[in-house]
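Lab notebook, bench 4. The sequencing result for the construct came back, and we need a structural model before the next group meeting so we can plan mutations. Quick request posted to the team channel:

Model the 3D structure of this chain.
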Amino acid sequence: MALEKAATAAQSIQDARENPSPWMIVWIALKNHKGALVGAGVFTFIVLVVLIGPFIYTVDPILTDSSALSQGISWNHPLGTDNLGRDMLARMLSGGRIALAVGFAAMLLSLFVGTAIGVIAGYYKRLDGPLMRLTDLFLALPLLPLLLVIIMLFRETLRSAFGPEMGIFFLIVFVIGITSWMQTARIVRGETLALKEREFVLAATSMGTSGWHIITSHILPNILSPIMVSATLGIANAIITESTLSFLGLGFPPDFPTWGRLLFDGASQIGTEGSTARVIWPGLAISLTVLSVNYIGDALRDAIDPRVRNK
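Done. Here's the predicted structure in token form:
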């Protein structure tokens, strides 16, 4: 009995090593990648600051103070003020919440579309060709001009329907998510094609199990690892895209603080007093957030590669 238990435990350990769970892959990634540890720490710090900070630092980010125009760092204004006297720290915290909300929402939409198309294309051979040609079509589109055209066409309609802030939020999330699913679809399709030939899927098919049940019970749980990698990279891509749109003046309203808009406002005031700091803070926040997420994504990608994991 003791030998059987020892053999079962050894087999379980071997199975866990060869086919680790998604959470085990996250642990392997963070443990073996110093950059990922630093990135996870920085990203966690940024998320906590922008979520909890406004409840501690309760200054109104749109409140103007004519007696504190373009001030530097002080006790009253830890990051200084802009040319209208608005507190930069309060605006940075508000912009961070918007950036993270857009990043996570657009990532979820992109993952949903990409995973659905990838699984269907990989499992149903007759749909593989049309869906992959659709993916190639989206990959061939010039994304930034397409984003600009969509926003220009539907911005006023959504503003009227949902308000100036929520309307633009829905529009930006939609256009980013619907134009960034292609890489996820290709990755998921490849994984699905490989899993479709595995013994447990063939056995389920031979027993008459429906395709939908096989996809939800056997395929999707086994492709969570590459989906997690796409999720991390999708957050970074969404934050950069939203910042780009705001910098170009096509994002949220001008008085609504986002990191991209703060960067644009600071760049437009280059040469005036305090303008340098106004460019550094939002640029640093965008860079640190994107770099930290990319480091986590790189570590996850290394962890799911058996050639790297088994070294």
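The mean pLDDT is 80.
Will bring this to the meeting.
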